Amino acid sequence: MTGFGRGAASGDEFTVAVEIKTVNNRYLDIHLRLSQELSPLEMIIRKRVGARLSRGRVDLNINFERTGTTTYEVNRPLIAGYVSAMRDIQQQFNLSGEIDVSSVARLPGALAPARDGLDEVNTTGLERALDEALDSLEHMRESEGAALTEEMRIRVAKIEAEVPIIEAAAAGLADAYRQRLQKRVGELIARGGQTVELDAGRLAQEVAYLADRSDISEELARLRSHLEQFRAALAAEGEVGKRLDFLLQELNREANTVLSKSTEISIKDAGLAIKAEVEKLREQVQNVE
Predict the structure, then answer these.
(1) How many domains, in total, are found in the chain?
(2) Residue 196 has pLDDT above 70, yes or no
(3) Are 94 and 67 spatial neighbours (Cβ–Cβ below 8 Å)?
(4) 210-230 pLDDT, tens per residue?
(5) Are residues 196 and 175 part of one domain?
(6) Can you list the positions of beta strands (E) in the chain?
(7) Would the pTM count as exceeding 0.90?
(8) Residue 33 has pLDDT above 80, yes or no
(9) Euclidean distance between CA atoms 3 and 145, whole angstroms
(10) Contact criterion met (CB below 8 Å) for 287 and 270
């Protein structure tokens, strides 16, 4: 589910700002942007985010700055190598000149802010800023989730409205098969110029066989059951995204079976309408945890 959150904290000698953004994803995929200094806390940060979120791509940016007096570390091996190389150049090409401090200081990597390490105060401040950002994110996602839930309920109602149409059409299938068989046999007999009486018992057997093959009562019962479970899951607390995803797979399976068993236009139209709504629901469920 999409969302955005921001948090900040500060201390006597540091400030930390956290921004977190989430977009739709079937699984939890965390992408961190943080300085080298915060690398030792990466696993702690990931676990803290994973405890609050279960799905979505998460982009997390943490900006940590020290506000106290900055001390620098001298990269002695780098400077020593630089000075040695400059002296070699002087000797080899018989050049004059001196190596001054300013030129050494401008050498990339010669000086770097000292890494004093992260103490408990720094870590606590970072965790406080991260929790604030997660709280802000969840508040935004809850608002979006309420709207999404209502939209999914509307789509479930549309699917439920198609079920009585299928049931009504299925109730008249046996009579439809009998009329179709009688008409077809009559056409064949008339084409051959013969006079033959239809065996009512044999005709009833064929009608029963076709009706049994096209019986969709079990599929419709399961369809209604899955819809009830889907509604219950929408109203449940906690993580329901995977359960909703599974129920939609089952709804799609039942709709496919109904379509494969029947040749009636009204049933096929209703079955295709159900599949269309299920597909839209599957896209929306990817946003649900």
Answers:
(1) 3
(2) no
(3) no
(4) 555 567 778 889 999 999 999
(5) yes
(6) 3-10, 14-23, 28-33, 56-66, 72-74, 111-113
(7) no
(8) yes
(9) 10
(10) no
